[in-house]
Amino acid sequence: MCYDDNARPPEPPKKNGKARGEDIALTAEDGNRFAAYIAHPEHPSGPQALILPDIRGLHQFYKELALRFAEVGITALAIDYFGRTAGISSRAEPFEFMPHVQKLRLSTLIQDIRAALTYLRTNTGADQPVFMVGFCLGGTLSYMTGTHDLGLTGVIGFYAGISRDFGSGKKLLDVAEQIRYPSLGLFGGADQGIPVNAVHTLDEKLSKAGFEHEVVIYPGAPHGFFDRRSADFAEASADAWRRVLGFIQAHSSAAH
Q1: Cα(214)–Cα(111) distance, rounded to whole angstroms?
Q2: Which UniProt keywords apply (predicted)?
Q3: How far is the CA of 85 from the CAs of 5, 105, 141, 164, in angstroms?
Q4: Which pLDDT tens digit goes with each residue over 52-85?
Q5: What is the pLDDT of residue 256?
Q6: Which one, of 38, 39, 45, lies nearest residue 256 by Cα?
């Protein structure tokens, strides 16, 4: 598990207004209804972030993360994964997520992501840059969305798992060379579930894809280091925020 109910995202480096958030439900093309949370900035700067949570789905950490993005001017939408198997009830602990995780399939996840992108483009701006921002399972999914024609501006993955295939039979390293958008990857050097040599292999495969990318490994940082409680890794968290916001700003400017 990436984050428990007590985890909170670190504060971004500089805020430029308040944020307003609300729980919503979205509907995919196949009729699946799933939970989501939208955060609106007081002073929108243009870019939009679609947040893909960790293995537990949409819980409080990601709602607060959406608000932190909105406080720096970025409209943020966080989605849940388990509408098809668990409905739209709360993902607070002690939600038994693993039986639902095992039923996830890339094809239906992409349907949900398309519905979320449609919501963003319909309600907050059809021509604005959109970035995927994923964590753990969502980090892998963020990269994998980069192999689909979704009209993204960039993909960002925190601690993207290398071995997950979402029932597709192809893992991240199998498809990395097909990613068609700029990407940013953030990893902990002491993450026991993601070997550093696998991260280096991902970096090499992204180079072959031909799109701008950056892979950052924070020495000594564990899985889930991006957490306000992790005082020992506050510097890594602050640097991760700077890199994420810098990536979004740079590619948003390039998109216009």
Answers
A1: 27
A2: Hydrolase
A3: 22, 12, 19, 19
A4: 999 999 999 999 999 999 999 999 999 999 999 9
A5: 60
A6: 45
Whole-angstrom distance, CA of residue 95 vs CA of residue 91: 6
Do residues 122 and 115 make contact, with C-beta atoms less than 8 angstroms apart?
A: no
10 contact partners, CB below 8 Å, separation of at least 6: 226, 227, 228, 234, 237, 238, 241
pLDDT digits (tens, 9 = 90+) for 190-222: 999 999 999 999 999 999 999 999 999 999 999
Contacts of 56 (CB under 8 A, 6+ apart): 1, 2, 3, 91, 95, 97
Here the tokens at position 45 are 């700067």
Whether the CA torsion 109, 111, 117, 122 is positive or negative: it is: negative
Q: Tell me what percent of the residues of the chain surpass a pLDDT of 90.
A: 92
CA of residue 252 relative to chain centroid, distance: 17
User: Structural domain boundaries of the chain?
Assistant: 19-255
pLDDT in tens, 183-192: 999 999 999 9
Residues in the chain: 256
Q: Which residues pair with 188 in a beta bridge?
A: 218
Pick among 2.40.40.20, 1.20.1250.20, 3.40.190.10, 3.40.50.1820: CATH of 19-255: 3.40.50.1820
